Amino acid sequence: MTKSRRNMLFNKLFSPSSRAIFVDWFERSALVLVWIITIAIFGALRPETFLTWSNFSIILGSQSVIVVLALGLIIPLTAGDYDLSIASGLTFAGTVLAVLNVNNGWPIGMAVVATLVVGILMGAVNGFLVVYFRINSLIVTMGVGTFAHGLTLWLGNQMTISGISDSLVEAVIVHRLFGVPLGFYYALILCTIIWYVFSYTALGRRLLYVGRGREVARLSGINVDRIRVGAFMSSGLMGAIAGILYVGTTGAADPSSGMTFLLPAFAAAFLGATSILPGRFNPWGTTISVYFLVTGITGLSIMSVSTFVQDLFYGGALVIAVVLSQIVRGREERLT
Amino acid sequence: METQIILEKKEKRGITLDPVLQIERLSKNFGGVQALNDVSLSIYPGEVHGLLGQNGSGKSTLIKVLSGFHIPDSLNFIKINGRQVNLPINQAALYEYGISFVHQNLGLMESLTVLENLMLSNLAVSKTMFIDWQKEAQRARSIFKRYDLNLDPLSAVSSLTPVERAQLAIIRGLDQLRKMRDEHSCNGLLVLDEPTPFLPAHDVQSLFKLIREIVTDGASVVFVSHDIDEVLEITKRVTVLRDGKVSKTFETTEISKAEIIRLIVGQHVDLDAMRAPTKILPPPSISLSKLTGGSVKDFNIEIAPGEIVGLTGLIGSGYDEIPYLAYGASSAITGTLLLNGKSYQLRHLSPSNALVGGCVLIPGDRLTSGAISTLSVVENISQPVLSLVSSSWALSRSTLTRNSEKLIRKFNVLPSDPELLFGSLSGGNQQKALLAKWFQTSPRLILLDEPTQGVDVGARAQVFSEITQVADAGAAILCASSDYEQLTAICHRVLIFSKGKVVAHLTGDKISKSSIAQACYIS
Q1: Can you tell me whether residue A181 is helix, strand or coil?
Q2: Which residue in A205, A222, A335 is closest to B423 by CB distance?
Q3: The domain containing residue B291 runs over which residues?
Q4: Which residue of B lies nearest to A200 if distances are taken between CA atoms?
C-alpha cells in the first residue's frame, strides 16, 4: 500500500463525517448491544440456568402480551397522545372474552371477534372525548381506563373466570415453532405490520406529522381529528389483542393482574424511542426494549434477588429512557 | 384640555425639569443592518411622548433595548430618573429604576382573575408568605375607583372586553411604578407599546382618559403607535424614527398631520429599483366575495391567473387575516371562494378541501404553522405529495428523496442535504424549502402571509423571483405583507386596509414604497 493510499484510508476512518456515522450507528444499536451484554453477564454468572433454550423460550413467549401492549401505545404516542387506558382495555377485553366464551357459551372465534370490536369501541370513546371536547388525553384515558376497570369487575363478578376454550390456549402458548410459543410470533407479526405502516405508508407519515406539529398538519390539509381518533382506535384494538393473548397464556381471565403491565409497556415504548430510530417511537425498538427489560429481570430473579427488583427495573428504565430521549432531543434543538 | 397642556408646557419651559428618561447616542446593529443609529431621546415628567415610525424604523428595537431584550452596540448612557442604567438591563432592576412596559399582547393570563393578574409581578418578586386577598381586593377596588374604571377584581380576565383588558394592563404597569415611587420617591415612566390597534374608536377614548389621569398624577408615558390621529390627540411631544435615526422630535401642537407623514415616510425620491413589470393579464377567474370574519368586513376581490395582489395596512386593520380566512384555516362568518369554476362556502371550507381545490397557504409563522422543525427537510417537503409521488401501498423513500433533492436544487435550499433537520436551516432557506413544498403541487391560488419575514437579504430576492415565476406560470397570488418594499417589488396591485375594509387601491406605476406608506397612514 502506498503512503498516499494509507493516508486516504486513515482519513476515511477517522474523518469527522465517519466519526458522525459511527456515533449514529452506536446510538441506533446501543439498545441491542446493552441487551447482548446483559445476556452475557447473566450467562457467565449462571450458565446452567440462564443460558438454556427453555429459559429463552419462556422469556420470548411470556412477554408477547407486554410487547403487543407497548406496540399499541406507540401509535397514539406518535400522534402526540397518551393512552393510559390500554392496560384496563386488556383486562376488560379478557373478561369480555371469558364471559362470552365460558358463561354464555359463544364459540371462541365469535367471542374473539366481539372482543376486538369492544377494544376498538373503547378506543373510539377515548378519541371522541379527546378530540371533540379538546381534553388532555392523559386525563381522558385515565378516566376511561378506570371506568373500564370498574366495568370489568362488575362483569366478571370480581372473580377470575377460568375454563376458556382449549383451542385459544393451544393457539397462544401450547403450540410452538422452533420451541417458542406461537404468541411470540403473533407479536412479531404485529410489530412488522406497524413498522411497515410507520415507515412505508402515507398514513404513517401523517401520524407523525400530527404528533410533531398539529397546526402545521392542519394547515397542510391533514384531517388531524380523524388521525387522532384512528390512533386511539388502533391502541384500543391492540389492547384487546393483548387481552386475548393474556387469556390464552393463562387459560383464564383475571380482572386485575393485567393492570400492572401498563408501566412496563410505557417503559418499553420510551426506551425503544432512544434506539433503532432514535428520537422516534418505533416498533422494533419497542419490542427489543420489552425483551431487554425482561432479560434483566429474569437474570436477577435467577440470581435469587427479591421480587421488588422488578419495580426498580421498570421504573428506573422509564425514567432513564425519558432522560435519554430528552438528551437526544436537546441535541436536535441545539442544531437549530 | 388643550389649553391645560399648553399651560403645562409653558410651566415646564420655565422650570428646567430633569428628564425621566434620557438616552444618549444609542446604536444597534443586526447583521450589518443599522437598526438604531445614534439615537438620543429625552422624556420629561408628566408628558405623554409619542413614538412614531414605519416597520423597520427602529421603534421596536428601541423598546426592546429599554426592556433589556437587546444589548446596544454603542451608547453614551441611558438614565432613568437621573440614575445611570447598568447594561445589560435586567427585568428585576427595571422596576427599581421606575419604568414599566405594557406590550401589545398585554401579558394577561386569561383564565385568571383581574386581581391575580394585577398582582402578577408583585407576587413574582414578593417575599411574603401570606396573601390577604380581602385586603388586596379592597386595594384593587380603590385603584379602579380612583381611575373611574368599572372592573371587578374577582371576575375572570376572559370575561373582559378588549378595552377593559388594555385598561387592566395599563393599571398594572402603573401599579408597579406606584409601588416603586412610594418606596424610592421617584417619578415613573410607563411605556405603552401599541396598546390600541385592536380597539374600536370609542374605546380608544376611554383608554386616553386613563392615560391623561396617569400623567396628571405625575407619571410619564411613552406612547408607541402607528396611528397618527391618536398620537396627535394624546401626546405632548412626538419623536419620529426613520431608518434607525431620529427623524425629528417636536411639540405636537406645532405640526400638521401631513408633515408627520412626510417625516415618517421620508422625502427621498422613490428609487424603487425593483418594481413588478406591468403585465397583460387574462380576465379574472378567481374571486372572493362578501368575505366577513375576524376583523375583515365584506371583502370582495377578483384575481386573474398570473396576477400578484398585495394586501396591506396598519397593524390591526385585518389585511393579514385574509389568507387564513380564504383557506378555511380560521373560520369566516360568510363569504364565497370561486376557484376553477367551483364555488366554496368559506364558512364550511376546511384546509383539506381548499388544497384539493388548488389553493395553498404559506403561513407567516414558519416554526409553529409552516413546518415541523424536528423533522427532516425531505419529510417536510414531501408532506403534500406523499400519495402522489409514491404508490398508495408503499412509500418509496428513494423516490421521495429524489423528488426533494430535485426541489432543493431548483429552489436553491442550502445546505442541500434533504436529511437535515428542518429547524437547522436558516430562515431564508426554510422559506425557500416551504415554497418548494407548496409550489410542487401546481396550485391555482397561492395565499402568502409575510413571505419574507425573518428572511435574509440574499434569500429575499430569490423568494421574490420564485413568487414571480410561479405567477408567470399561471398561479394567482394573494400576498399579505407589511413590507412595502416587497409589495412594490412583486405586486401588480396593492389593496390597503383600514378597520377591516379596503380603503385604497394602487396599481401599476402608482405602487411605490412611499405611496403605500402614505395610503396606510392617511387612512
Answers
A1: strand
A2: A335
A3: 282-358+442-523
A4: B395
